[in-house]
Amino acid sequence: MFCALPRKTSNGGQPCEAPQRVKQMVRSNWSTAILVCSGCSKRLEGGFGKKGKQSLAKALRRQLGIKRFRKSPVGIVEVKCLGVCPRHAVTMVDARDPGNWRLVPAGADLAVLVDTLGLAEPTRNDQPAA
């Protein structure tokens, strides 16, 4: 088999490497994905969580009780800079509503944010029902 696609360097008619098998799909339990700008998070040096030292992505994962990334009901993914770069806030995109980006100020109440996004917090069996 010879390479049909042109490359920057000519292969001189040499055969291509054998194509590697790629798994076509990997299943996840996500209902949505939340994209969090890592540039904003890095500039804030935390700003979330109990002591204000966690990044937004890590604090959201803890708030939602996400332990197993692919098996969680929601994916929280830190992505490279989204280019908005607000002062004292982190840019966040909900994949269910990609046209509206959110600017989450440092120290924001994560319970309110989770409720605003419509994400369910885990129920804890160790706390008595009121």
Describe this structure in words.
With 130 residues, the protein is of the alpha+beta class. 18% of the residues lie in helices and 18% in strands. Strands 2-1-3-4 form a 4-stranded mixed β-sheet.
Task: Describe this protein with a few key phrases.
single chain, 130 residues, alpha+beta, four-stranded mixed beta sheet, 3 helices
Order of helices and strands: EHHEEEH
Q: Could you tell me the strand content as a percent range?
A: 15-25%
Structural class assignment: alpha+beta
Total helix count? Answer: 3
Strand order of the largest sheet: 2-1-3-4
- Contiguous uncertain segments of 5+ residues: 125-130
Describe the SSE topology.
Elements: E1 32-37, H1 38-44, H2 56-64, E2 74-79, E3 89-94, E4 101-105, H3 110-117
What would a concise description of this structure say?
By secondary structure, the chain is an alpha+beta fold. It contains 3 helices and 4 strands; from the N terminus they run E-H-H-E-E-E-H.
